[in-house]
Amino acid sequence: MAPRNVIQTEEESPRGVVEEVLHSDNMSFDEHTGPGKANVRIVWRNVILMVLLHGGALYALTLIPKSHPFTWVWSVFYYLFAAMGITAGAHRLWAHKSYKARAPLRFFLALMNAAAFQNDILDWSRDHRVHHKYSETDADPHNAKRGFFFAHIGWLLVRKHPNVMEKGSRLDFSDLYADKIVMFQRRFYIPLMILLCFIIPSVVPWYFWGESLWNAYFLAAILRYCIGLNATWSVNSFAHLWGTRPYDKRINPAENLGVTLSAVGEGFHNYHHTFPSDYSTSEYGWHLNITTVFINCMYYIGQAYDMKKTPAKVVQLRKLRTGDGSS
What long-range pairs does 298-304 form, CB within 8 A, spacing at least 24? Predict the structure, then answer.
């Protein structure tokens, strides 16, 4: 069930307000070059790190039969724990301000976000607001019109187009800088990330059920982290290229069930880009949307409030006006 007193909002622009990992302010394209004619400059450090990470994740798969079943369960649990730091935290709370959260929940989400290791809240939310404002243009950090590979991971392996920084600098991020929890997490991000993304998930299986540190590290830290990254990236790639567009057929973002399942509810992407401030990111509420379930639970214990929900009538009218007729 959705909370009874959600705030109703009017229909929003399909290019509303706000993704991701290893953001660096100095990662930009050669000046005055566009993606089609650009002198693409590879960031070899990121290439090497991503090759090592994915190689480690593939090796981790061979350890599954040799590890304790509790380690499998723990890895799945920690995957969801870290994912909420992105979906319920950096994305829906801080990037879109689609609901409000009291300090204990905001602090908890900041820790979960560090466990996901996709950059601190401020950087992630800043990139995501730029992505929504300038979606599928040179100013979009992961412009899907440059192809699947670029939208999925390639954007992290080359220097950013100058428009990303230039146009991104025009947006207002004062609310993020004014948030003490966001700035606390930013200040201590590296130690928090090392502790929560790598040390804790590795130590818990070793301490509580005798798993080897080797197995625990590769399964609960490396494999879990790598899958989490690719699940987030799939929103930028799969959900921007393939699927139905029942709300706005004029934009790239699409409804993609596979992404919805892997990214804990973030695959209703045509809806999300059409109504970006809706806290559930879909018209179906909590259905197939673990993140919405989490936010609703936080509402019932008094930690989340003022959730924004697009009225059903507005959704239906938008479907008739700009949808592709798929639902």
Answer: 298/88, 298/101, 298/105, 299/3, 300/3, 302/102, 303/101, 303/102, 303/104, 303/105, 304/99, 304/100, 304/101, 304/102, 304/105
